[in-house]
Amino acid sequence: MIDLLCDQHLGLILETELWPRDWMRGAVCAAGCEEGAVPLLPQLDPGWQLAVHEASHAVCLVVTGTEIELVTLGREDLPGPGAGGVRFTSPDGSYDAAALMAGAAAVDILIQMVQKSPLADADVVDVVFGARHDFVTAYDAGLSDDDIAASSDMAWDLVTERWADITRVAEPLLARGRLTGREVSAAMTRSQR
Question: How far apart are CA 127 and CA 110, in angstroms?
């Protein structure tokens, strides 16, 4: 992915680790990057990467008191773009900002665990690109770049603290393709024993 970006957008992504606002509906200088057309983070199994990404959203939502209805690796149960997602009910109907940014934080942590080193520039670009729908959701909700950066920091802390829960949810999610909220909670409870 990194080779497809113009210098301006590459510099912005590497500096801020944010999806560019002018790409709200698609990567302008990387327009040929349709869903799945460019392999992201080739050193990771794509199924495990997606399962960890979606499990991190689910776990962080549960931790913030949100009721999960469904977490899935497929799109048949959810509207909108992207490979997977979480359907939930929150009192105010919003997506907790830290839980929203948890997917990128979890993949960031996962790749550092695999490589046993900080992310290379190409990995940073792939993590941001892989979480682009989360960034668009944050922008659509009116979050500023500073809000997203702060939420990403909180997400990193929450994902680090709840890593065992995330992997315990990701394992059956990868095996079955979807979990109910009860199954997410049961997997999290098992990790605390």
Answer: 11
Q: Is the pTM of this model over 0.90?
A: no
Distances (CA, A) of 50 to 140, 141, 157, 167: 23, 23, 20, 12
- Rounded CA separation 193/138 (Å): 35
Backbone φ/ψ region at 26: left (φ over 0), alpha (ψ -120 to 50), beta:
left
The residue assigned the tokens 């997606």 is: 50
The domain total for the chain is 1
d(CA 102, CA 145): 16
Q: Read off the amino acid at residue 48.
A: W
**Among the residues of the chain, which ranges form H helices?**
7-16, 46-63, 97-115, 121-130, 132-140, 145-161, 163-176, 181-191
Nearest to 98 by CA among 166, 170, 55, 159: 159
24, 45, 154 from 166: Cα distances, Å: 28, 16, 16
- pLDDT computed for residue 185 by the predictor: 94
Residue 89: strand, helix, or coil: strand
Q: Which domain, by its residues, includes 7?
A: 2-17+45-191
Which CATH number covers residue 131? 1.20.58
Q: How confident is the model over 151-188, as pLDDT tens digits?
A: 999 999 999 999 999 999 999 999 999 999 999 999 99
Question: What pLDDT does residue 89 have?
Answer: 87
Within-domain flag for 119 = yes
* Residue 179: strand pairing partners: 71
